[in-house]
């Protein structure tokens, strides 16, 4: 029997891609805004096996943690008496470690956004017991036509923003652990299909030098660009996640070559 899924948030990059992906798979899902969900007078959540929260409060992203700005917490409080599981989109930045980071590694977020994410995790675990699925996401690759309004920008956001100016910032020393938006959607569905709960790192689990990803994303760009070499910030920016728990759970294809193919498709769609 297909799981019944609700996506909260309809306008964001991740939510729009999840909606498109789930439509193609003909999954049993629906979507609505955070405001509409919270304002429902009846227990809307009881109709769903999973709720994926893609919404976020701008004050949550920009400012110190306040419970009233935490959409995940507010959703958790509303569904706590139901059997519905909440999918929370967290961040790899909650960790202290930088390399081969496992879910059990020490948490020590270094910025306000990641501190807020960790607090959200703690709060929903307490409220929902085992009715949660927390995804600590590495670095999502995807292209948006307009990302200027985004408050929390990714590596690919910065790439596509600066490429419009004919610039590419690069540093051959830095590597990250990426995941394409297409693969992220596939992984999310696979975890739900397995009735998963708990905490999962969502990544490829391999180090990928940023210059290589830039080459893939710029592949179909026929315009002349200026390359600007950035000073090394290797110790601050490079990281890899350990995704053993994820891959043992869902057993799907998730390789660097898959990322390369997805990046080339993203490049083609953006530049042609």
Write a concise keyword list for the protein shown above.
single chain, 272 residues, alpha/beta, Rossmann fold, 6-stranded parallel β-sheet, two-stranded parallel sheet, 11 helices
Q: Structural class of the secondary structure composition?
A: alpha/beta
- Distance, first to last CA: 40 Å
Report the mean per-residue pLDDT as an integer: 91
* Physical arrangement of strands within the biggest beta sheet: 2-1-3-4-5-10
Reading the helices and strands in chain order gives: EHEHEHHEHEEHEEEHEEHEHHH
In the CATH hierarchy, what is the superfamily? NAD(P)-binding Rossmann-like Domain
Helix content: 25-40%
Q: What's the total number of strands?
A: 12
Largest sheet: 6 strands, parallel
Poorly predicted sequence stretches spanning 5 or more consecutive residues: none
Number of H/I helices: 11
Shape: globular
Describe the fold and architecture.
There is one protein chain. This protein is α/β, with parallel strands linked by helices. The protein has a single domain (4-271), classed as NAD(P)-binding Rossmann-like Domain (Rossmann fold, 3-Layer(aba) Sandwich), CATH 3.40.50.720. It is 39% helix and 18% strand. The strands form four sheets. A six-stranded parallel sheet has the order 2-1-3-4-5-10, with helices on both faces. The protein has a two-stranded parallel sheet with strand order 6-9. It has a two-stranded parallel sheet with strand order 7-12. The mean pLDDT is 91.
């Amino acid at each position: 029997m297909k799981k019944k899924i609700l996506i909260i948030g309809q306008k964001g990059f991740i939510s729009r891609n999840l909606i498109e992906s789930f439509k193609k798979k003909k999954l049993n899902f629906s979507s609505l805004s955070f405001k509409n969900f919270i304002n429902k007078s009846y227990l809307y959540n009881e109709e769903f096996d999973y709720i994926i929260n893609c919404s976020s409060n701008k004050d949550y992203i920009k400012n110190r943690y306040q419970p009233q700005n935490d959409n995940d917490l507010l959703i958790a409080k509303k569904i706590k008496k139901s059997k519905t599981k909440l999918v929370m989109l967290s961040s790899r930045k909650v960790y202290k470690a930088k390399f081969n980071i496992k879910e059990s590694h020490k948490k020590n977020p270094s910025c306000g956004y990641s501190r807020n994410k960790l607090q959200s995790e703690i709060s929903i675990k307490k409220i929902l017991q085992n009715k949660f699925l927390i995804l600590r996401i590495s670095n999502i690759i995807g292209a948006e036509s307009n990302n200027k309004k985004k408050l929390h920008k990714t590596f690919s956001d910065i790439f596509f923003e600066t490429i419009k100016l004919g610039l590419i910032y690069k540093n051959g020393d830095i590597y990250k652990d990426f995941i394409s938006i297409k693969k992220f959607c596939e992984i999310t569905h696979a975890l739900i299909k397995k009735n998963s709960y708990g905490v999962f790192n969502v990544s490829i689990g391999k180090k990928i030098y940023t210059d290589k990803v830039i080459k893939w994303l710029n592949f179909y760009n026929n315009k002349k660009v200026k390359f600007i070499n950035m000073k090394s910030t290797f110790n601050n920016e490079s990281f890899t996640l350990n995704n053993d728990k994820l891959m043992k759970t869902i057993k799907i294809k998730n390789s660097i070559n898959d990322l390369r193919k997805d990046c080339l498709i993203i490049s083609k769609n953006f530049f042609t």
